[in-house]
Amino acid sequence: MANLLVTGGAGFIGANFVRYWKAQHSGDTVTVVDALTYAGNKENLDGVDAELIVADICDHSAMSALVRDHAIDTIVHFAAESHVDRSIDGPDAFLQTNIIGTHSLLKAAKENWLDGDGRPHRFHHVSTDEVYGSLGPDDPAFSETTAYEPNSPYSASKAASDHLVRAYHHTYGLETTTSNCSNNYGPYQFPEKLIPLFLINCLNGKPLPIYGDGMNVRDWLHVEDHCRGIEAVLQKGRIGETYNIGGGQELPNMAVIDGICAAVDAAFAKDAGLAARYPDAPAANGKSSDSLKSFVTDRKGHDRRYAIDETKAREELGYHASRTFEEGFAQTLRWYLENEGWWQALLAR
């Protein structure tokens, strides 16, 4: 049995991880710490056997006491500011949470595990493929040895946190692992990211704002596959190592958007009741959802392409994504249609 501390566990990926971990490891104790900022939602943990502590990871004394008092032996660190657009408009919060917050947790871990009782432990840091920068159309995919070239305040702050984790392992001997993931999607994703935003906009008849020419490429990873990848790192990963976790679904944004529109239209054609629930949707009025497409000025410093080489995770950990994008998105669409109350409450805030 393990005692896990999951930071940011009321957010999108963190909450999915808590749900996945408790389903697979019911005997483990899971404590969640989350500041419940705009993207944190305690309802994401409804029905899950996990204690939620509302606190800021930048509060070092609180984090050290939490690790001590809950006998934590495993930290899975999700807590981060993560939306690139917000980092462009207000980078200070990203440096504070992603860099200072990560250092606060590392110090707390060192105090309790290395300077304290020396218990077996693991500090797992969840990062992003964005730290590697941008790829050209013919460049090889990001591997764990790709040089860091972050291009946004968000990715720069995550790169800094990655380096801090590495430093605490090599300098102090803290037992760490890091995973760098590609674009996540799935249940409980806050509706500022592309897939939930465009899906909900299709339902509500609102514009679909497409940056630039819409041909920026991302590797899409269903959040449960990401959780499986982290589980594999925790169970089989080598201490001090980094593992890239991808979905193997490299798609331009326009293909994703077209898929969203087509799936929404198909759902309305199959279920006549959706027209009554969402009367402003084009699909409720005999039109196609792609009529909502609207091209807008490109994001500043917009990375053109990300792609993940997951050879290391596959060969060392036995990890591979279990879903195609079509399968994963179909599951995601069903979840959002069945959980309207969850996202309506967020939009009403």
Short précis:
By secondary structure, the protein is α/β, with parallel strands linked by helices. It is built from 12 helices and 12 strands.
What does this structure look like?
The protein is α/β, with parallel strands linked by helices and 349 residues long. It is 44% helix and 16% strand. It has a domain at 3-184 and 221-248 and 302-321: Rossmann fold (3-Layer(aba) Sandwich). The protein has twelve helices and twelve strands. The strands form three sheets. A seven-stranded parallel sheet has the order 3-2-1-4-5-6-10, with helices on both faces. Strands 7-9-11 form a three-stranded mixed sheet. The protein has a two-stranded parallel sheet with strand order 8-12. The model has no long low-confidence stretch (mean pLDDT 96). Belongs to the NAD(P)-dependent epimerase/dehydratase family. dTDP-glucose dehydratase subfamily. InterPro entries: dTDP_Gluc_deHydtase, NAD(P)-bd_dom, NAD(P)-bd_dom_sf, Sc_DH/Rdtase_CS.
